[in-house]
Design goal:
Layout: H1 5-15, E1 20-25, E2 32-38, H2 47-57, E3 68-74
Parallel strand pairs: 2-3
Antiparallel strand pairs: 1-2
Length: about 80
Amino acid sequence: MAMSASEIETLIRAALPDAEVRITDLAGDGDHYAAHVVSAAFTGKSRVAQHKIVYEALGGRMGGALHALQLTTAVPN
C-alpha cells in the first residue's frame, strides 16, 4: 500500500519537530515523491548523514510502502 504525502510529512516532523517539510507527488501515483526538508538538526552533518536522518524517520518504509523519494535537505538560513 502506497503512502500519502501527509503520512511522509508526519513521520519526518515526528523525528525532526523543527523541520520545514515540503512533499511533492512527482508522478501523481502516490508512489514517487520529492521531499525538501530544512532542519537545524542537520547543522554540521554531511549530506549523507542528513539523508540518513530522514530515512530513519521513515522507519524502514523506503522500498516498501514508499517506493521512491527524491530527497533534498538543508540547514536553516
